[in-house]
Amino acid sequence: MPLRIATSLAAAVALLPLAIAQSPQWGQCGGQTWTGPTTCVTGSTCVYQNPYYSQCLPSGSGTTSSAVASAALPTGTSTAKSNTVAKTLGGKLYFGSATDNPELSDATYVAKLGDNTLFGQITPGNSMKWDSTEPSRGVFTFTNGDTVTSLAKKNGQLIRGHTCVWYNQLAGWVTSGNFNASTLTSILQTHCSTLVSHWAGQIYSWDVVNEPFNDDGTVRSFVFSLAGGTVPNLNYITTALVAARAADPKAKLYINDYNIDSAGAKSTAMQNLVKSLKAAGTPIDGIGIQGHLIVGQVPSKAALIANYQAFTALGVEIAITELDIRMTLPETPALRAQQQTDYNTVVSACKAVTGCVGVTIWDYTDKYSWVPGVFSGQGAALPWDNNLVIKPAYDGIIAGFTN
Ligand SMILES: *[C@@H]1O[C@H](CO)[C@@H](O)[C@H](O)[C@H]1NC(C)=O
């Protein structure tokens, strides 16, 4: 689900506050592409939190938001290392993090990202997507993806490739080209083949297809699912998987989606897709369960396990690929405690299922989370705070792999 900020979802979310002249206390008042009010109601001051988010905080409560936060909020206490524990006690291949090229200029951030006792796997958040890699037809740019893969390799970390085909962050030339079905198939083959070939031998797993379903389990409608018709279909998925397998026979090939954490129409649709791909002999190795969740609304451990096992019973592995657990700001000690429980629930459910190979968080620090830029008034979704200090959520992760 993570999008660059200038997307239709962000635009839709940002439309809401347009009619309001001033943001309320605790409301958003700035950030990249923020189009709402930049002044706060009397008694509040607009305080910068990160490039995507500024917030109206009570006036006189401190010079920075982190000064306010760190005085009142509990931090993590565990000294164990998340990737080490995931492998040794959790029996997993990795605990990992997404990252993105802009934050690689932050040396403190990079030092922690590169610590392979904390993170054994890296996912490039944006730099392998279509708009970044084939911005014009046949013109491929791999520079930013190379930067992330080089860093991961230098630090002895696995890499998850992300992604060959997604309805979002597609290059404009694809969607507006009025191509017929056979040309679209060829465009997709060329894109996946070239992308996966470029990093062949370096990638643990590829999210070949991202987010093929709507939340009700129907097939998402976009240029590739509509190729040659008016009813969305899943034929493009076979094209992409076959091209990816040929380009890098050793990479595990995944389909990745959100809201498939527990049983429901979308999870059922994904399981049916796996069954039909397997029946047709199409290569499919894994399902990525993104895990963009909300504090206090995480399914029970039993519900997660039952759903994870429904996938692994079909002969695919699974991974938690984009975990973050967001809350309505501001953070409180109670919300941090609930978030610790929620991270523990997801990680311990993955531990309990043999075919769940690893857990990836969608960046590790709130400083670079996508959440505040897309979900107005929400954030603090990650186990490290804005100052790269561990939160109780980190202890929840460690306990989840340990117990
Ligand atoms: C599809 O478009 C291509 C390129 O314009 C053309 O060569 C081809 O004949 C078309 N195929 C069909 C079935 O219309």
TrEMBL record:
<dbReference type="InterPro" id="IPR017853">
    <property type="entry name" value="GH"/>
</dbReference>
<dbReference type="GO" id="GO:0045493">
    <property type="term" value="P:xylan catabolic process"/>
</dbReference>
<keyword id="KW-0378">Hydrolase</keyword>
<keyword id="KW-0119">Carbohydrate metabolism</keyword>
<dbReference type="InterPro" id="IPR035971">
    <property type="entry name" value="CBD_sf"/>
</dbReference>
<dbReference type="Pfam" id="PF00734">
    <property type="entry name" value="CBM_1"/>
</dbReference>
<feature type="domain" description="GH10">
    <location>
        <begin position="79"/>
        <end position="400"/>
    </location>
</feature>
<protein>
    <recommendedName>
        <fullName>Beta-xylanase</fullName>
        <ecNumber>3.2.1.8</ecNumber>
    </recommendedName>
</protein>
<dbReference type="InterPro" id="IPR031158">
    <property type="entry name" value="GH10_AS"/>
</dbReference>
<feature type="signal peptide">
    <location>
        <begin position="1"/>
        <end position="21"/>
    </location>
</feature>
<feature type="active site" description="Nucleophile">
    <location>
        <position position="322"/>
    </location>
</feature>
<dbReference type="GO" id="GO:0005576">
    <property type="term" value="C:extracellular region"/>
</dbReference>
<keyword id="KW-0858">Xylan degradation</keyword>
<feature type="domain" description="CBM1">
    <location>
        <begin position="21"/>
        <end position="57"/>
    </location>
</feature>
<keyword id="KW-0964">Secreted</keyword>
<keyword id="KW-0326">Glycosidase</keyword>
<keyword id="KW-0732">Signal</keyword>
<comment type="similarity">
    <text>Belongs to the glycosyl hydrolase 10 (cellulase F) family.</text>
</comment>
<keyword id="KW-0624">Polysaccharide degradation</keyword>
<dbReference type="InterPro" id="IPR044846">
    <property type="entry name" value="GH10"/>
</dbReference>
<dbReference type="Pfam" id="PF00331">
    <property type="entry name" value="Glyco_hydro_10"/>
</dbReference>
<dbReference type="GO" id="GO:0030248">
    <property type="term" value="F:cellulose binding"/>
</dbReference>
<dbReference type="InterPro" id="IPR001000">
    <property type="entry name" value="GH10_dom"/>
</dbReference>
<dbReference type="GO" id="GO:0031176">
    <property type="term" value="F:endo-1,4-beta-xylanase activity"/>
</dbReference>
<comment type="pathway">
    <text>Glycan degradation; xylan degradation.</text>
</comment>
<dbReference type="InterPro" id="IPR000254">
    <property type="entry name" value="CBD"/>
</dbReference>
